[in-house]
Please model this.
Amino acid sequence: MVQRGLDLLREQVSQGALHNSKERAHLPRRHPGTRVELIDDIKTWLDDVNDPHLILWLKGLDGIGKSVIAEAISTHCYEEGRLLGGFFVSESTPMETRQHDVTRIAPTIAHQMEQNPHLQLSRFIGGVVEENPLIFGLNLPTQVEKLIIEPLSLRSDEMACRMPPVLVVLDGLDQIPKKGSQIQVVEAFSKAVVQAQHQIPVKLLLCSRPQRVIQSAFMDSRITPFIRTISLENDYSGDEDIRTFLIDEFREFRRTYPSPHIFPTIWPMDSAIDELVERASGRFAYASAVLDYVRDESADPIRRLSIALGLSTRSSAISRGPRKASISGPFIFTCTAFFFCLDLTW
Model:
């Protein structure tokens, strides 16, 4: 009978929202040697059972690498058997699907819990669904309580003795269309983690743009003391990581280019890398867009880099804008389209 409950649960899973889903296979991964200090900081927070901050809000502007970091942490916890579950909302997801996915967050995380052999929760989760097959039509706080917290509490004594804290990762909350739904998700999971703290070692990693509506959800006095915030713009400058990324990628591009003799002895110049790092303003999406533009097989890479570096005063203001103002729309698409449009004018 438990199997029937698990079968019903799987029908509600949003597979594309899993950190390791095939739908996410094309997305960027963390470049080796980058974001090391930040990743170590998050791991230390996760491992520290005495840290009162059960919730970590990782916030940053478009293209700064929030999802890459969330994916790296999720993979680390998954390999250690400590990923309770993750849910990734992407800009590439159709708008109507994003709204529908709100109803699938709790079932998707419960499914990952059930699949984790270290947790051994299948019979508890399947039993909850078998007992109440209509649970997927209930509100989000009830689903979180019944599908996630209750099964964990049934094994809380045993788990607390032998396991370090486990993690729930929610990425791209700002991509949920309705602001009310964003608040509902933040409040439901935050309150559940806080209420369960004395029974179950669970922590919550939330990743989003620094939107006021999400911040307002943390103003509840019952959860405020348990929240730690990391601002990627202010707390962890990505400039040196972007420099490493650009140098490594350009070096690999030169190594594999069919006609390496076309390049000068030193290319790109250090000054060119410096300029690109400054224009990136901490956003890996900008650096990736430049690389995609320069490495296009149909064009001369030296000319392309010169075009990217030779932006006019007006264009330069656009490229430097992210730290001064938020740019709407998918940032990496905006950058890439801008470079290719610029190319047509030369």
